[in-house]
Amino acid sequence: MPAHQFILNGRTVSVESPADLPLLWVLRDVLGVTGPKYGCGVGVCGACTSHLDGEAFRPCIHPVGDTTGRAVTTIEGLGAQGLHPVQEAWLEEDVAQCGFCQPGQIMAAVALLRRNAHPTDADIDAAMSDNVCRCGTYVRIRAAIQRAALLLRASAPTGGASLEGDPGTTGRP
Amino acid sequence: MADTLEAQPESPGEWGRRRFLTWVVAAPTLMVAARLGLAPADAEAAQAPTEASQTPLSLYIAIQEDGRVIATLPRTEMGQGITTAVAMLVAEELDLPLDAVDVRSAGADSRWLVQLTGLSSTMRLLAGPLRAAAADARARLVTAAAFRWRVLALSLTTAQGEVRAPDGRRASYGELAVAASQVLLPAVSPLPKSVGEYTLVGRPTGRVDARDIITGAARYALDLDLPGALPTVVARPPTLRGTVQSFDDTPARSMPGVVGVVPLSSGVAVVARTFAQALAARDALRITWAPGPASALSDVDIRARLREAIGPRPLPPLLTTRTLEGRFDFPYLAHAPMETQSCVARVQGDQAEVWLGAQDPKYAQRVVARALGWELSPQRVTVNVTRAGGGFGRRFFSEAAVEAALVSRALGQPVKLLWTRNDDMRHGHFRPASHHRILAHLGPGGMLLGWNHRAAIPTLELPHGFGDALTALAGELLPQVTSTVFFALTQRSPYHFGLVSHELREVSVPIPTGSFRSVFTSQVGVANEVFVDQLARELQLDPVALRRSRLASSRLQAVLKKVVTVGQWGRALPTGVAQGVAVLEEWDSAIAHLVEVDVTGAVPRVLRIIIAADVGLPINPKGIEAQLQGAAVDAMSTTLSAGLHIDAGAVREGSFADYHWLRMKHVPSDIQVHLVRSDDRVGGVGELGYPSAAAALANAIARARGTMPTRFPILDEGA
Ligand code: FES
Ligand code: FES
Q1: Cα–Cα distance, B213 to B145 (Å, whole number)
Q2: Are B78 and B189 members of one domain?
Q3: Can you give the CATH number for the domain in which B106 is found?
Q4: Assembly ipTM
Q5: If pLDDT is split at 50, 70 and 90, which confidence band does B113 have?
Q6: Average predicted confidence (pLDDT) for chain B
Q7: How many domains does chain B have?
Q8: Which residue in A79, A134, B55, B195 is deepest, having the highest Cβ count within 10 Å?
């Protein structure tokens, strides 16, 4: 079986498995990284949302073979140096109910804010509408993203969104 | 001892609704608390399974050496925030910082007579006993300190997890715990604080488990790391309750990672090293299925059966000059919790242990024991309750635990069993479909003489702990908690509408059912409130004015007034935009919704929702707001777009791709919650927020479009 080497939350890992094994199961079953959740396994709910080279992606439909040499960040790797501003905002808005969707929601929100430091509600709707929250926390998610945008802008002197606290992007431009 | 232990004025033969609901879930817990919780010398309490460093002071409260307080809750956290509310109550009574309290869910344990999480009962029924237990613990700690220091107990105070003396001496709760557990009679009042003394309870407070959730540290059943537990999935029949006729597992067994294949009554289980391998091998099984009992039924047949069951109209009241009729159809609904059904199990010899987010751990224990042939010794099954990724009624049933236990025994290995999203959608215990006929009988001058609501609903399989509770208490009076009994005791009208009757026509349909948020009120209550608006249209009255003139309850009047004022009822709106209202009083709480909707686009768009709720003492206003916002999203989803279809005994929808639960883009930013407080009783919240949200939305759409929606979900009307 081929070995696949990639950077997981800032550390290099190597996994022997078929190349087409969905990354979600590599993370959960092989590496014991359980932050990304199984909600559908077919890419429609967003519960597994994590980052690949800083972009949101869905490990449940992403083959491990395609991650070779790339940086995978899960919710566990997001706040390596304390909480990420998006997590801070999530606490302040008290977003979570059952919490099962929240790692995915947060990872999707971080990716959005990285692309767009000043999202409008419409931008948030567009970026977040493929992440289901069965508990209906959408109102607070929206508020938390707006709050996080403020926090990020305040912490980034140039006015751009900060990438700090995301070791998954180490080594990438 | 607890404020939920109200006097019961009715004679034993009269089963009033309120009394029923109080007895069903309250009394058993209270009895246990009274018998065990406050008697530290009690042998049973001493047997509590505890960690070495813990000293139990009651069934609810234990104190660790390091001074942390462990509160044990015979309920399950599924996202409703009960662990936070409980931590607040305990911290309040014990004068502790909130983060010094850990709340744990009790495993199946016969000392808790009822462990069912539902019917908006947790805070309503446990707030009293928990406050009493925490206050009693404080009194014992103070007494122990007084003993140690040989001072008057009344001179001591408590703060920050310490007992303090006027001379400056201090002792932490951790140091005093053992002595406190031996106190027979507290030397200070063991009574809870009065509401006016609260400093924490009532303050909007963030969830105590929020940090775990947002960092990915929160553990759900399948995140547990039980050494050697093997990933397991089950091939399930295409039709509901179909069965395996024959199967060939030769190709599957030779696939990489496969450890075993175990036939079950629900399908064929495949165990492998990873879930990916188990899923691949599951797909390689060759199974011939026998169709399930509903395989001759599709939506049209079910609807026809339900309509037929409604029967002819009853005789109208005397003097009736005109009768208005409304008909409503509701679909089957899947609970679709975000975490699908799942369980970790280890069966070894004559002992079994399971880990899952059960809404009724004792029921889980019983069904697992029965499946293993241990009906007479269910205590051989240990049920550990984990946090659940949503429940909504689905986790009253524990099929995953039964399957996991059987597979673990067959292979002699621990397993972690996952239901796929397809499994969860297509093999649920669904909120039953229903058909309703409401008749409003009018007399001379538009006088309302009567209101007859007849609902045809497939038999509802009620949560099992529910029946247990009643049987334990009042077996002779109500030996069976059937859906008819539950319907009769919960469905009523808050209006002065003359002769009011609600009738259930149970229809036998071989499709599994289960209670859903708000149970029967999710249909009956919604239809009632939608037809109240229709009545207002017929009588050319403003719907708010009609409600105001007919509502008997001052609490409902107050919440209605609140939404009407805040939402500026009747203000000028653009064409195609309208407001709707609806109210509900249930679970010792009252609520009103005002919804604004825009129907000018392809699909109705909710612009804002104003909610006013009277839940009595709001323990954590932030948690209540979250519950009511979430219930509003449920209501919007199921009113507009989410519903199941049955095709020849099979559920059509398989995931959130075709089960149209609302997404971020459908939900307005403005869902306001206003709390109105009429007294300090603790009312229910979890189930409260659904029915009037759904009805207010339907009413807004009716007012915007000029026609009343009668089939839900509205966007599926052609199906
Ligand atoms: S589990 Fe990956 S999108 Fe649903
Ligand atoms: S918090 Fe439960 S699914 Fe989002």
Answers
A1: 38
A2: yes
A3: 3.30.365.10
A4: 0.92
A5: confident
A6: 89
A7: 3
A8: A134
